[in-house]
Amino acid sequence: MEAFVKSEIKNGIGVITFFHPQSNSMPGTQLNNLAAEVEKLGKDNHVKVIVLQSEGEKAFCAGASFDELIAIKDLDTGLKFFSGFAAVINAMRKAPKFVIARVQGKAVGGGVGIASAADYTFATKEASIKLSELAVGIGPFVVGPAVERKVGTSAFCQLTINATEWQTAQWAKEKGLYAELFETAAEMDKSIDALATKLASSNPEAMAMLKKVMWEGTENWDKLLIERAGMSGKLVLSEFTINAINKFKAKA
Fold first, then answer.
1. Which residues touch 117 (CB under 8 Å, ≥6 apart)?
2. Which domains does the chain have, with CATH numbers?
3. How confident is the model at residue 193, as a pLDDT?
4. 162-182: buried (b, 16+ CB within 10 Å) or exposed (e) per residue?
5. What is the 8-class DSSP label of residue 47?
6. Which residue in 145, 181, 189, 237 is a FRET match for 76, CA 20 to 30 A apart?
7. Which residues share a beta bridge with 17?
8. Interatomic CA distance for residues 12 and 14, integer angstroms
9. In this structure, what are the phi and psi dihedrals at residue 134, rounded to the nearest 5 degrees?
């Protein structure tokens, strides 16, 4: 299967699904398409709530595409690539609808950022998380504000510094990243459908106001996340990072 981002609307629920054959990793085009889809459903009056999910069973999102990272040769290209993650997070933040995330498997780097930027995140017990950026010579600069906002500074530092270790889905729930945890994807989907259906019949004006209140203090993220993208874009050009990414690709 080829990579895609698609959406469908049914009974006031807008469902966005993304897929990439490499463990749902995110090339720049995929990130831009995902951000655009969130923005589109956010403006659609037929949509009362957004559900964000990925295809497949094993990985929710493996973060940045290593193939695209290693191809970055200048600052402008690096800034443009990492700005894709900024665009997705900001689109989720600014959408006047609640965004529910469905995390059915492991999330790495940018995948943790996407899960964190959702307003309510469901997950299975298989949905371990890892911020692996430091292990390849960069850092979770762009996704950092979203992750730290959700789990707190201490847990964010733990994830960032211990970059090669997975944290369990239970750990993520205890830190506040996951709102609910399930044994199976089927059980999770039943609960997602129940909550989304309730929200689809709730007052859209009240939900839009609540969304704005919940994200107070993040108004500077349009600028902040682009600045952070520039930090990652610079580091990805370093000899250290190039060698580290090539080592990771060799193991894959």
1. 88, 89, 92, 93, 99, 146
2. 4-184 (3.90.226.10)
3. 98
4. ebeeebebebbbebebbbebb
5. -
6. 145
7. 6, 53
8. 6
9. -60, -30
Cα separations in angstroms, 162 against 131, 143, 147, 166, 211:
8, 16, 15, 9, 32
In angstroms, the Cα distances linking 95 to 38, 84, 149 are 7, 16, 17
130-139: b (≥16 Cβ within 10 Å) or e = bbbbbbbbbb
Q: Which residues pair with 27 in a beta bridge?
A: none
Contacts for 212-220: CB closer than 8 Å, 24+ residues apart: 212/96, 214/119, 215/93, 218/93, 218/145, 218/149
Report pLDDT for 252: 62
What CA–CA distance (Å, rounded) separates 192 from 184? 13
Amino acid present at 3: A
Give average pLDDT by consecutive 10-residue segment, the chain, 252 residues.
96 98 95 98 98 96 91 95 97 98 98 98 98 95 98 98 97 98 98 98 98 98 97 94 85 67
- Contacts of 235-238 with C-beta under 8 Å, sequence gap 24+, read 235/137, 235/138, 235/139, 236/69, 236/72, 236/78, 236/81, 236/82, 236/137, 236/138, 237/72, 237/73, 237/74, 237/75, 237/78, 238/137
Positive/negative CA dihedral, 249, 178, 99, 94: negative
CA 32, 61, 64, 21 torsion: positive or negative? negative
